[in-house]
Each structure stands twice: as structure tokens, then as C-alpha cells.
Amino acid sequence: MLSTKARKLNPALLKQARFDNEPEWLTNLRDEAWKQVDKLTLPVFDKVDYHSWPLLDFTETEEQPTGDVTSLLDPTENYHFVSVGKKTIKNDLSDDLKSKGIILTDMKTAIRDHSETLSKYLFQKAVKYKENRLTAVNAALMNGGTFLYVPDNVDIKDPINLMAVQDSRVKENFVNHTLIVAGANSHFSVLQRVSTIGEQTNPAHVTVEIIAEDSSYVKFSALDTLAKNTYAYYNRRGYLESSARIDWTMGVLNDGHTVADFDSDLMGDGSHTEMQTVALSTGKQVQGLDTQVTNYGRHSEGNILQRGVLLDSSTLIFNGVGKIIHGAHGAKAQQENRVLMLSPKAHGDANPILLIDENDVIAGHAASVGQINKKQLYYLMSRGLSKKVAKRLVVRGFLGVVLRDIPVADVREQMVEMMERKLSNEQGTE
């Protein structure tokens, strides 16, 4: 097994990833991206050496999954769209939403039926395939995903729920791409859950592009629970036009090694983003999470909030970058990165960076890495709670500032349950 840095990809993978009868523009995009794969460098995640990970260990002879996967899913969960591997098993958008011009479909169908619309957005604004080697690989080898389009002036009351499942019952490539386009003055929420079935060792590449056109508002929440044998790369990006807003709330609760880019480009005047992330690292897990907001527009505002908890011998690195481009008069950039250590063997770091190229701005940051508050523990234990339960309550309070922004109560509970599971497995806790 070659490292991510050294691995040479077989051109057969490009042919294998293509959809049936895909349009010429997409084939050309894949080909151009493929030409860049060996020329571009890997993205840098400060203080995380992931080059030995098999992130590009794609199988060249995919196995065909067998068996009914629908029985593995919780029937009580109200998802509008569910995919397992490259197969769509549920696409249930109400007639009322369809009548408003909303499109929700798998990427293969979207490319067939909405090719002209996709060609304007896919790898054109939020994510550029020439950024680094991983973005080029993702553009070339995209083999599944979801397309959500909400037209101008459409307001959706309830969240659109998406689920993407990596099928690791077999060796299969999972290069999943979600494209969300918010028309001008549209308002809606999206919830995405990414998980794994099976125990094969596989890489997972998960990309999300959100294009927020003028005065639109998107609330995007994610619950990531990929398996221990999955090596994951996440790339979630926002492109915001004038007076647009995207609120991100992401729970990174994978069991395997993870690196992630969570970025927003505030292109338009008055655009605004809130980027909030919670993460737990356990065992010998390594996670490097980079969040960046770049202010291009005048009076744009971007805020970053990252909170993480470390157990056992795990590693969690938060890198936050607030960047204000020359000409972004009146821009605001604030960030807060905090890491809570529950084990002396864990390694955590929070690195806030401000890159300011304009005078008339407001910018600031805060960062902390520390042990659990002993006074809080003592108070809870004095009320009869065990040390283990007291720790869990302190952690829940520490992460609660982000959890409360998850728009669906059931999903908040799922996230809490996942955290409880990780915490209950902590080594050496009594």
C-alpha cells in the first residue's frame, strides 16, 4: 500500500468513474483535472502529517455489493435522499416542493437532466480543481453524489435531509460530491449525514459545494460518522454573493483518520458566514481540520467557532484562518478555537491565523488548549455523580454552544449519542 504522497493513479480509474453518456463538458473537465493530478501538490494541514495515509488507495477492480442495504437504515429517520455507495436507494421530495421548482436528485441523473445548470456551478466557483492534488482527484474521479437546486425567492420551512453512506462491505471507491445552489433570495436548511457500513479499509472523499446567490440564506448542518477503517478527506466550500449568508454547523465524529477543508469565500458585499465545528478524537485517531473564511466583499462578515475534545492517545489539530483581501472595506473576521484534553497522552492544538490586507476592518481571535476544569468536576461529583458521568456532562456543556444550532432535534440527539459512545469508550476513565 503506497502513501498518498507517492501513489501513482492508474488512468483506468478515470474511465471507471465516468457516468453513462455523460456530456462533453464533464468529460473535458475530468480530463483536464486528471492532467493536473501529478503536477499539483497535496494540501497542507499544519502539524498533521497525513502523507502515509492511503487516501488515494482507490481500487481498480471494484466489487459489486450484494444484499439489501435498506434493512440497515433506520426507517424512522425522515431522509429525503439516501445513497449507499454509488446507488440511490431513496429520493423522496414532496410534490409541493417539486411544484416550486426545487430539484433534488443524484449526481448521475442531474448530469443527464440538468446538464446546462450543472455546467455553470460544478467545480466552477466554490471548488476549483486546480487548487491542489486532492481537488483535482475529486474532480476527475467523482462517481456519485447529490444535486439540490432551490430557485429564486423560494422559502422552505423544514430541513432537506440528505444521507450518504460509504459501502465498505466491499472494496469500492467513494468520491461523493454534493452541489447545492441557492437561488437569489431563497431560504432553506440542509442536513447531511455521512456514515459507513462494512469494515473494509477504504478511502472516502466527501465534497460539498454551496453556491449562495444574492440575498439567499442556507443553514447547512452535517453529522459525520465514518468508520474506523476509513481514511477521510472532506472538502466543504461556500461561495457567497451579495448579502448572502451560509451558517455551517458540522459535527466531525468519525472513528478513523480525517483531514478536512471547511472554507467560505465571501465574494459579495454584505455577505456573511458562521462556521461552527465540533470534533471528538479517540484512541490513536488523528484529525486535522482547517477552516478558512476569506473576505472579498465590502462589509462582509465571517466568524469561525471550533471546539474539540481529545481522549486516549488521539490527535486533533484546529487551524483557523481569517483572511481579508485588500478592498474589503468594513469587513469583519473573528474566530475562536478551543480544545479540551481528557487525557495526558492526547495531542491537541488550536492555531488561529489572521491575514489582513485592509485597514478599515474589525478582526480578532481567541484560542485555548487545556485540561478539564477540576472545579466543575468536583462540583458535579459532590452532587453524587461518578467521575465518568461528570466528565460527560462537562464535555456536553463545552460542545453545547455548537450543538444547539443543529436545526433538527432528532439529529441533535444522534450527535449527543455518538459523543456519549465515544466518551464511554475512553480508556482509563472510571
What are the key terms here?
single chain, 430 residues, alpha/beta, nine-stranded mixed sheet, 21% helix, Fe-S cluster assembly protein SufD, SUF_FeS_clus_asmbl_SufD, SUF_FeS_clus_asmbl_SufBD_sf, Fe-S_cluster_assembly_SufBD
Gross morphology is globular
User: Quick check: average pLDDT?
Assistant: 91
Low-pLDDT ranges? none
Number of DSSP strand runs: 19
Strand order of the largest sheet: 2-1-5-7-9-11-13-15-17-19
Query: Major beta sheet, specifics?
Result: 10 strands, mixed
End-to-end Cα distance = 39 Å
Q: How much helical structure, as a percent, in the residues?
A: 10-25%
Rg of Cα set: 21 Å
Strand content: 35-45%
What pattern of helices and strands is seen along the backbone? HHEEHEHHHEEEEEEEEEEEEEEEEHHH
* Tally of alpha and pi helices: 9
Q: Assign the structural class, choosing from mainly alpha, mainly beta, alpha/beta, alpha+beta, or little secondary structure.
A: alpha/beta
